[in-house]
Write a structure and sequence with these properties.
Number of helices: 5
Distance between the termini: 50 Å
Order of helices and strands: HHHEEHEEEEEEH
Strand order of the largest sheet: 2-1-6-5
Shape: globular
Largest sheet: 4 strands, mixed
CATH architecture: Roll
Radius of gyration: 18 Å
Strand content: 25-35%
């Protein structure tokens, strides 16, 4: 077994004095909207160093194809929710809150691997996507490429955004 950063001595002490149980109850209270699942990322919030501003960018990559799907912003709440569920959550700047990827569309992303860059201020989340990542209907948010004279659509749509997001009036 690997030492997760808590240390086995600390973990044993936490079990004996009930601290581990209190932490679990606290996490359960934080996520009242659903049932907390066991996750291999349970210790993520404890060892992930967030920059002083409290947010860090993360690249979301399809674990099977290697395609870059999204660039997201993580804060402590998003990291805690990833740790609790194993699913991508991120800080949504327009909504000014943390959201579950796919909470409206059903196109969630299961985290399979997390990597930290060399300077410790960016993450790579490798995921198994369940549907397209882009709200415009594409598998990746990076569906445009620079052509000779302008931006061109490089990838096909994988879903109709008007059907998936009927509450939004799409002008794109």
């Amino acid at each position: 077994m690997k030492n997760t950063g808590l240390g086995w001595t600390n973990l044993s002490a936490m079990i004996e004095n009930g601290e581990l149980h209190r932490r679990c109850l606290k996490k359960k209270e934080e996520f009242k909207g659903g049932i907390m699942t066991t996750s291999k990322w349970a210790n993520l919030p404890e060892w992930l160093p967030l920059p002083p501003e409290g947010q860090m960018p993360a690249v979301v990559q399809d674990a099977a194809s290697g395609a870059v799907l999204m660039l997201i912003t993580l804060n402590r709440e998003a990291v805690d929710r990833i740790a609790a569920t194993g699913l991508v959550h991120y800080y949504h700047p327009r909504k000014r809150k943390v959201v579950l990827k796919g909470e409206s569309s059903g196109h969630s992303q299961e985290v399979t691997e997390i990597r930290l860059n060399c300077t410790g201020d960016q993450l790579l989340l490798r995921v198994n996507p369940r549907g397209g990542a882009c709200e415009w209907g594409y598998q990746s948010c990076f569906f445009r490429r620079l052509g000779a004279d302008s931006w061109e659509t490089a990838d096909p749509r994988v879903f109709d955004p008007e059907e998936v997001y009927p509450e939004f009036a799409f002008s794109h």
